[in-house]
Amino acid sequence: DAKTTQPNSMESNEEEPVHLPCNHSTISGTDYIHWYRQLPSQGPEYVIHGLTSNVNNRMASLAIAEDRKSSTLILHRATLRDAAVYYCILSSPGRPGANNLFFGTGTRLTVIP
Amino acid sequence: ETGVTQTPRHLVMGMTNKKSLKCEQHLGHNAMYWYKQSAKKPLELMFVYSLEERVENNSVPSRFSPECPNSSHLFLHLHTLQPEDSALYLCASSPGYQETQYFGPGTRLLVL
Question: Is the predicted pLDDT of residue B74 greater than 60, yes or no?
Answer without folding.
Answer: yes
